Amino acid sequence: MKTLGIIGGMSPESTVTYYSEINRLVNQAKGENSSAPLLMVSVEFSEIVACQKQGDWQKAGQLLADAGKKLEQIGAKGILLATNTMHKVAGDIIEQINVPFLHILDATASAIKAQQLNKVALLGTRFTMHDDFYRDGLEKRGITAIVPDDRIQLEIHRIIFEELCVGKFLPESKRFYLNTIDSLMQQGAEGVILGCTEIGLLVQQTDSQLPFFDTAQLHSQMAVDFILGQ
């Protein structure tokens, strides 16, 4: 098996999901007491959040690139960034490492195409929904993403940072997300990208008739395929 390096901590809640899911899938594939050979650098999340609020993406990119380089130096054969939003600076990491980078948009777009869908709702942080990097990245991969209006984006963002990232899962917030999904379905959404790695902790596939694309789960499967050399 190949050793995978994970840049985590954004947030710790979702990083736990990555760690447990990757190990579960490796064990499912290999059996007995098999687990995934993983290395991790867990960044200080408040530093990243400060960069986001200040719009200092250059500093954020360098912090994460440094983490990627450290993982490569201690033996990682590939790098995974365990968050959606910070893929905004994926290019900074890719430029400074010499091993494969497992991009979350590749995993997500592949799953959407496998179901022959073209137009999907995108939920995530304000940066993911509002900035061009995520929607443009999907467009280049043949997927059109639609997002809610600014007011709803702000509330989705608030719930992620003030609740989900610190382990709060409130029923009223779940209702808000599901109502937003229903509204986007009326606008033509054929599926829903859970484009923040915490959202899948709040809403699940059984909550909606639209197919969900949980990016943390899809990215974890991509990680396992890499680890197992598939």
From TrEMBL:
<protein>
    <submittedName>
        <fullName>Aspartate/glutamate racemase family protein</fullName>
    </submittedName>
</protein>
<dbReference type="InterPro" id="IPR015942">
    <property type="entry name" value="Asp/Glu/hydantoin_racemase"/>
</dbReference>
<dbReference type="InterPro" id="IPR004380">
    <property type="entry name" value="Asp_race"/>
</dbReference>
<dbReference type="GO" id="GO:0047661">
    <property type="term" value="F:amino-acid racemase activity"/>
</dbReference>
<comment type="similarity">
    <text>Belongs to the aspartate/glutamate racemases family.</text>
</comment>
<dbReference type="Pfam" id="PF01177">
    <property type="entry name" value="Asp_Glu_race"/>
</dbReference>
<dbReference type="InterPro" id="IPR033134">
    <property type="entry name" value="Asp/Glu_racemase_AS_2"/>
</dbReference>
<keyword id="KW-0413">Isomerase</keyword>
<dbReference type="InterPro" id="IPR001920">
    <property type="entry name" value="Asp/Glu_race"/>
</dbReference>
